[in-house]
Design goal:
Number of strands of chain B: 11
Radius of gyration of chain B: 13 Å
Distance between the termini of chain B: 36 Å
Strand content of chain A: over 45%
Distance between the termini of chain A: 41 Å
Helix content of chain A: under 10%
Shape of chain B: globular
Helix content of chain B: under 10%
Largest sheet of chain B: 7 strands, mixed
Largest interface: A-B, 26 and 28 residues
Strand content of chain B: over 45%
Shape of chain A: globular
Order of helices and strands of chain B: EEEEEEEEEEE
Structural class of chain B: mainly beta
Largest sheet of chain A: 6 strands, mixed
Oligomer: heterodimer
Number of helices of chain B: 0
């Protein structure tokens, strides 16, 4: 079936460390891929997206590249800050046929804790 | 635009009571999603609508759950009767309904059933 698999957390890093959160997907066809972030007590916010193979999404120092050959969309940041502490969700939108809407499927989320 | 608006933000109710959660999507969006988030099961898609029509309700856990979208600017998720295991944060999200555009989330409703 169609799914998203993320690395389990929590991921604990010191400030200015390099971050990688792995995400792989299984989908029929070619989905669009997203990373969302959820800060404590808030809803999910879009962090970045990529709509086709080899696209790189970037925002706030975070990057992710849509790799069709490895069905991956790993999130990276060169130097994390305490304010980046949050839960990060990888997601895909599966394009449906016949004019139907598109289903947004999430991974389980990865908690990132950055220590000063 | 004020974004996706959910109400109430917090709801505490007794087991067996009816609970209604409300959502106002972003104007112009034609897709609406209801999600449930718990520590145990993460973020689950309950149901989604396109142009006010339910497209996929396979995530609705039981007949106690029902969702409606009477018009493009309003949706409800109802639980009747509520049970303690329904305690969770319920999110509503809306989107333009294309594969290239993201969904925008509300702040969520934290439901506690005692």
């Amino acid at each position: 079936g169609n799914s998203v698999t993320q690395m389990e957390g929590p991921v604990t890093l010191s400030e200015e460390a390099f971050l990688t959160i792995n995400c792989t997907y299984t989908a029929t066809g070619y989905p669009s891929l997203f990373w969302y972030v959820q800060y404590p007590g808030e809803g999910l916010q879009l962090l970045l997206k990529a709509t086709k193979a080899d696209d790189k999404g970037s925002n706030k120092g975070f990057e992710a590249t849509y790799r069709k050959e490895t069905t991956s969309f790993h999130l990276e940041k060169g130097s994390v800050q305490v304010s980046d502490s949050a839960v990060y969700f990888c997601a895909l939108i599966l394009r449906m046929g016949g004019g139907a809407t598109n289903k947004l499927i999430f991974g389980t989320g990865t908690l990132l804790a950055v220590q000063p | 635009d004020a974004g996706v608006i959910q109400s109430p933000r917090h709801e505490v109710t007794e087991m067996g009571q009816e609970v209604t959660l409300r959502c106002k999507p972003i104007s112009g969006h034609n897709s609406l999603f209801w999600y449930r988030q718990t520590m145990m099961r993460g973020l689950e898609l309950l149901i989604y609508f396109n142009n006010n029509v339910p497209i996929d309700d396979s995530g609705m856990p039981e007949d106690r759950f029902s969702a409606k979208m009477p018009n493009a600017s309003f949706s409800t998720l109802k639980i009747q009767p509520s049970e303690p295991r329904d305690s969770a944060v319920y999110f509503c999200a809306s989107g333009e309904g294309t594969a290239n555009t993201e969904a925008f989330f509300g702040q969520g409703t934290r439901l506690t059933v005692v």
